[in-house]
Design goal:
single chain; 559 residues; alpha+beta; Beta-Lactamase; Hypothetical protein af1432; 5-stranded antiparallel β-sheet; 4-stranded antiparallel β-sheet; 57% helix
């Protein structure tokens, strides 16, 4: 196979592999973003559902207060108006507002009146409703500790979650003495679930917690998202709801549609197919250019060298005659060529040294190009404004200097440089409103923000060149005392490269210049670094870094 054909094939394969890697990277990023959006959406819908259930509980409390704080109710409980139930308790009206039952309890905790609006026929034993709820030892205190405002919450009746409220029976002026307690309940029935689902446009169901889950209440997650197959079109999750005393009561289980990324993925595939076609065309154009500018000229040179070789093979030694003609001139020329050949053989070692020097210089130029390309890629994929992005190469170069001072291996120093460049790439996976927020983050937002080192690690591990450079992006937010994130590592358990970059990043934040900022002096920077030594930074590395600052000099290091 000719050099021309090898070059054409190598170029085509390289372009196709590069396109394939970009395709996989963008597709994977799209899928991860869609999965994160699905999780956030179903979590939000579950939260909205629980909020709606709590709103129903507040509505129930307001309705109960209207009945409990009534002169008619108070007089009835004190033995007046025996027709109270028939005159005031309108079944249709109470059913319309969702009331399941009303229990009137006297001051001796005896059932005075019971009305069940959830069934056509009331239970034969009015105490059954009361007993099902309040015979539980954890609920017996409710009737004795209601207070003026009453108590509301959730109880389980026959493994069915029920909203309840207990209100003291007082006069219309909310004065006493109390004539007992009014208990109003509302079952979380299929009708109520249907109404909430329709209002929220979110389908859900409720499922009581098991005895095992109640025993392990401390270890139960508030929200749990079920893992689903990538081909599945839905995502499911559940959120825990606790009763009035903090015991796990039931799960709100919801199902939502996944975000469809197939159309976007197809567009990406079509786009990269077009790029692949362009790559093939470019490889053929390059082949044509190679033929005209290199291949044909090399063939002409080959023919000339073969002619010289054949002439040498016939004569062995070029003899230069004394005649002054064209042949003499050719002889002299060929003699010079042979003399140059001998010269090369005699001084081969010297030429090897020169060649090595030239190669090293070209290699250095290539390394600079490689480093510049990596810096451009890291800057392009870095979140934040221009000032923030331009600070990355500065921090990466300083990290390499610090690693060199610590006498790290060249390979470790190179991957520390790469890790510094891509230290914050995971912020691209954090929702923009959170990473761009200028005020203090809420606990939930902070949890989302603390995920970005994990996202950085996933991004870098998806690219083979960057896989060994994950120490810094994954662990540089860890603190020496163990209060960092994402894993809470401490001391020497934190990788050395991450400890190095943490110090460099702090220095970079303090000293990187931008318009209108007054830079601190080197002494001020050293004081601040020492203040953080032992808490945020490795104390020994801080001292070595300060020595590096002294060695480099203020004029050099403050650039």
């Amino acid at each position: 196979m000719t050099l021309r054909r090898k070059t054409q094939i190598s170029l085509g394969i390289t372009l196709l592999i590069l396109l394939l890697m970009l395709d996989l990277t963008f597709t994977n990023f799209l899928r991860r973003s869609a999965e994160q959006a699905d999780i956030e959406r179903i979590t939000l819908n579950l939260s909205r559902t629980v909020v709606s259930i709590n709103a129903e509980a507040r509505t129930l409390s307001a309705i109960a207060a209207n009945w409990a704080h009534s002169d008619a109710t108070w007089n009835y409980m004190r033995g007046h108006n025996s027709n109270y139930a028939s005159e005031t308790l309108n079944r249709d009206a109470l059913t319309e507002v969702g009331i399941s039952s009303m229990i009137f309890i006297d001051n001796n905790n005896m059932v005075r009146l019971f009305k069940d609006f959830s069934a056509d026929d009331e239970p034969s034993s009015p105490e059954s409703e009361f007993s099902a709820i309040f015979n539980d030892p954890k609920n017996q205190y409710l009737l004795d500790n209601t207070g003026a405002a009453g108590i509301s919450g959730i109880v389980l009746k026959e493994n069915q979650p029920i909203l309840f409220t207990v209100k003291p029976i007082l006069t219309s002026d909310i004065e006493g003495p109390p004539a007992g307690n009014l208990i109003v309940t509302r079952a979380i029935s299929p009708k109520l679930i249907e109404n909430i689902s329709r209002n929220l446009h979110f389908n859900f169901a409720v499922e009581p917690t098991t005895d095992t889950e109640k025993q392990n209440a401390d270890s139960l997650p508030l929200v749990s998202i079920e893992e689903s197959d990538r081909k599945s079109t839905t995502i499911s999750g559940r959120m825990l709801v606790k009763d009035h005393i903090g015991t796990p009561s039931f799960w709100v289980i919801g199902i939502d549609k996944k975000e469809d990324t197939s159309a976007a993925e197809k567009k990406i595939q079509y786009l990269f197919l077009i790029f692949a076609l362009i790559a093939v065309i470019l490889s053929f154009l390059y082949d044509l250019f190679f033929k005209c500018q290199f291949s044909d000229r090399m063939k002409r040179l080959q023919r000339e060298i073969e002619a010289i070789r054949d002439e040498k093979g016939q004569k062995g030694i070029i003899t230069v005659d004394t005649q002054k003609d064209e042949i003499n001139s050719m002889q002299r020329t060929l003699s010079d060529v042979m003399a140059y050949h001998d010269f090369k053989q005699e001084h081969k070692s010297r030429m090897d040294s020169i060649s090595l020097m030239v190669y090293e210089r070209f290699a250095q130029a290539g390394n600079r190009l490689c480093y510049k390309t990596l810096e451009d890629i890291a800057t392009a994929f870095s979140p934040g404004d221009e000032k923030f992005r331009n600070a990355l190469p500065r921090a990466a170069k300083m990290t390499a200097k610090f690693c060199d001072r610590l006498k790290m291996a060249e390979e470790d120093k190179f991957y520390a440089y790469l890790g510094a460049l891509f230290s914050r790439i995971g912020l691209l996976g954090v929702p923009f409103p959170i990473r761009s927020k200028n005020t203090e983050l809420s606990p939930s937002e902070l949890r989302e923000y603390h995920k970005y080192p994990i996202i950085s690690k996933d991004y870098l591990e998806s690219v083979e060149l960057l896989r060994p450079a994950t120490h810094i992006p994954y662990c540089w937010n860890e603190k020496w005392e163990g209060t960092g994130f994402p894993r809470g590592l401490s001391g020497s358990a934190i990788p050395l490269q991450a400890r190095v970059f943490a110090i460099v990043d702090g220095w970079n934040e303090m000293t990187r210049p931008w318009l209108g900022r007054k830079l601190p002096s080197q002494e001020e920077v050293e004081i601040r670094l020492r203040e953080l030594a032992g808490s945020k930074y490795d104390p020994q590395l801080v001292e070595q870094f300060i020595q590096l600052l002294h060695e480099e000099g203020e004029n050099q290091i403050w650039k």
